[in-house]
Amino acid sequence: MIEERKLGPGIVYTETVVYSAPEAFVNDAPYQIAIIALDAGGRITARIEAERVSIGDRVRFAGYRNGIPFFHKHLEE
Amino acid sequence: MRPVAVVGIGKTAFGAFPDRDLRGLTVEAARKCLENGHIAPSQVEAFYLGNFAGPAFAGQNHLAPYIAASMGIVDVPATRFEAACASGGSAFFHAVSAVAAGIYDLVLVAGVEKMTSQPTPKVAEILASAGDLGGEIRVGGTFPALFAMIARRHMHEYGTTREQLASVAVKNHANGAKNPLAHMRKVITLEQALAGKPVADPLTVYDCSLVSDGAAAVLLAPLERASEFTDKPVRILGIAQTSDHLALEEKADITTFPAIRRAAEKAYRMAGVTPDDIEFAEVHDCFTIAEIVAIEDLGFVKKGEGGSYSAAGCTRPDGPKPVNASGGLKSKGHPVGATGVGQICDVALQIRGEAGDLQLSRHALGLAQNLGGSGATGVVTILGAAA
User: Mind listing the pLDDT tens digit for each residue in B364-374?
Assistant: First the structure.
């Protein structure tokens, strides 16, 4: 079981949009995943929801679903 | 440590063979290899098998004695080595170590994978088990996705372009078209490579190696006995295997593979040669970006210059540093466990001057580089003609 810890905001270190998905995720494709450098330190690989992101974009944590951390592009307030 | 030589080689064709099974493929490669080294199965003192996922792809476990016994090799240590896509290289490294240490004289190393009996999403899932299941795979990562993220970062930091990635595919397809054992013997254009179906941005199908069936085998002996088995022994001048994190997120810089850099440094030191001395190389182009990173990590070019060096044609067979003259994983195919052993066969063929239409003009000193997963295992071997 993976521990679900609350995550803070971060910046996109790298990303890709997956078209050819593994068996468990065929219905989700295409979807974006990214490695995020968290402001608090360390990196995490996560799913990006809604608007697509590029390297250097700021993102915020949107919660876990089925054990998967989701992030959203951080829009100006 | 005593010097070790490759005294026999054998390969099956790589491809999609619905009528062949894992054991039959291995036995074909091993028989060719033993014939090539002029020995009987009963003379083999140990059997090392590189195989990534036979149990997942085919259901069978306990593979090494299962295969060895079927060709008359019994009463010896027979063991399977698993190191993802470097399973073959790892089996080879450990076999060389045992012969060098004087434990055995005649050792048979084989590598095999039977992949095409499963549908693509299942293959993707089995391959993904070589990544970190708790992180990058849990969120929907695949191996193409991991290398796509490496490519994106390499493009961001060094200005590497889609065209430079595609130039690797074009070259390896042109080379593989001349290789009678290659899975896909098809020349492609830069335009075709760029217009390929997307797999994981920025990689298209033309950036990815093939899902294949196949096997390869190598016979090892101490150099001092090599002439009993062959007129053309190929000496292992340097070899190293090293390890690193599985997960990309745990690496400080994903545009380089420290396991390859460190294995290369050790192998160069053992062989007493520099990257400039290497005349040709077979590298692990599971994806086009992996070849670009490999030639940087091996020291053939400065960090970040792999893309422009490739696009300039420097790694073509007529260039200053031929890379993957065999067609590479891209065109030969990538039956995972067979790949590392197959690379040794291809380098040995060049050194022996037996590479046919693929023969390079400078072929005395070659290098093979085998990468496991997204960089957690690296194996680098330097081979040369035995004087």
Answer: 999 999 999 99
Which pTM does this prediction carry? 0.97
Mutate: best of A4, A14, A65, partner B, most B CBs <10 A: A14
- The model's confidence at residue A6, banded by pLDDT at 50, 70 and 90, is confident
The partner residue sitting opposite B198, judged by closest CB among A19, A35, A43, is A19
Residue A1 has a pLDDT of: 44
Contact state of A14 with B201 under an 8 Å Cβ cutoff: no
* SS3 labels along chain B: CCCEEEEEEEECCCECCCCCCHHHHHHHHHHHHHHHCCCCHHHCCEEEEECCCHHHHHCCCCHHHHHHHHCCCCCCCEEEECECECHHHHHHHHHHHHHHCCCCCCEEEEEEEECCCCCHHHHHHHHHCCCCCCCCCCCCCCHHHHHHHHHHHHHHHHCCCHHHHHHHHHHHHHHHCCCCCCCCCCCCCHHHHHCCCEEECCEEHHHECCCCEEEEEEEEEEHHHHHHCCCCCEEEEEEEEEECCCCHHHCCCCCCCHHHHHHHHHHHHHHCCCHHHCCEEECCCCEHHHHHHHHHHCCCCCCCCHHHHHHCCCCCCCCCCCECCCCHHHHHCCCHHHHHHHHHHHHHHHHHCCCHHHCCCCCCEEEEEEEECCCCEEEEEEEEECC
Look at B121 and A68; give whichever has higher pLDDT.
A68
Whether B26 and chain A come into contact, CB under 8 Å, resolves to no
CB contact under 8 A, B142 and A68: no
Token pair for A10? 């971060």
Q: What is the ipTM of this complex?
A: 0.96
Does A37 touch chain B if contact means CB atoms closer than 8 Å? Answer: no
B135 touches chain A (CB under 8 A): yes
Q: Using the beta-carbon criterion (under 8 Å), do A46 and B156 form an inter-chain contact?
A: no
| Identity of the residue in B125, B156, B250 whose CB atom sits nearest the CB atom of A24 | B125
